[in-house]
Design a protein that fits this description.
Elements: E1 3-9, H1 16-29, E2 34-37, E3 40-42, E4 45-46, E5 52-53, H2 55-64, H3 69-72, E6 75-77, H4 83-89, H5 96-108, E7 112-116, H6 131-138, E8 142-148, H7 152-166, E9 170-177, H8 185-195, E10 200-204
Parallel strand pairs: 1-7, 1-8, 2-7, 3-6, 8-9, 9-10
Antiparallel strand pairs: 4-5
The chain binds adenosine-5'-triphosphate, 7,8-diamino-nonanoic acid and magnesium ion.
């Protein structure tokens, strides 16, 4: 029986993929077969042969050794904008059932599947749906990446409340240092530990 997690963050660009790679490496080192999924990616580079390449997909694939990009990334959009806008511009409706069936396929071959959202917990996927709805559709416990910088306490506690409201288990959080020298880092971490109702799974240093 495989386990799966939905990885969200306090914002976009705060190190979800960076943390995903570290989590995947850790599980791999424990002898687990790992798979990653980036169901919806916005922001691609177009290669000379016309292929669309998303950086998150490439980084996740490099960490897991998966080869089938289409299986782990069913929706890929060119502009680096909110997925609901990218999907609307492309005339695409994001189908949660399709994502769930791909997830099941990945889970059949892995001990742990890590699903990375796009943006934060309430990043929209359409005019009426949000990342949180996709996480609920998949029914996965949630891991929150906190991009450690000024303002993150508020973002983290708001996100934690919204995760609890969703009814999904809040499996844990990652403290990812996105700035080199956050003043009073230890105190910020202690405040988060005191208020977040889930265990700190990983503390990642700033990497210059
Ligand atoms: N601990 C860290 N030290 C230094 N740089 C970091 C760290 N974590 C993330 N970064 C850098 O910050 C940028 C954003 O990180 P990342 O792509 O993982 O964010 P994300 O939350 O996955 O974004 P998105 O919402 O687009 O998926 C990247 O350039 C990454 O290398
Ligand atoms: C383009 C970016 N890197 C992500 N892929 C999408 C971020 C969506 C954020 C939506 C929002 O909350 O405003
Ligand atoms: Mg990412």
């Amino acid at each position: 029986m495989s386990s799966g997690y939905f990885l969200t963050g306090t914002d976009t660009e705060i190190g979800k993929t960076y943390s995903a790679v570290r989590l995947l490496q850790r599980w791999r080192a424990q002898g687990k077969r790992v798979a990653a999924m980036k169901p919806v990616a916005s922001g691609c580079e177009v290669l000379a042969d016309g292929r669309w390449v998303n950086d998150d997909v490439e980084r996740l694939i490099a960490a897991t050794g998966q080869t089938d990009r289409d299986a782990m990334n069913p929706y890929r959009f060119l502009p680096p904008v909110s997925p609901h806008i990218a999907a609307r511009e492309a005339n695409v409706a994001i189908d949660f059932s399709l994502i769930a069936s791909r997830y099941v396929r990945l889970a059949e071959e892995a001990d742990v599947v890590l699903v990375e959202g796009a943006g934060g917990w309430l990043a929209p996927l359409s005019d009426t749906t949000f990342m949180a709805d996709l996480a609920r559709h998949l029914g996965l416990p949630v891991i929150l990446v906190v991009g450690m910088r000024l303002g993150a306490i508020n973002h983290a506690l708001l996100t934690a409340r919204a995760i609890l409201d969703s009814g999904l288990p809040f499996a844990g959080w990652v403290a990812n240092r996105v700035v080199p020298d956050q003043p009073f880092y230890a105190e910020n971490l202690a405040t988060l530990k005191a208020h977040l109702p889930a265990p700190l799974l990983l503390e990642l240093p700033y990497q210059p």
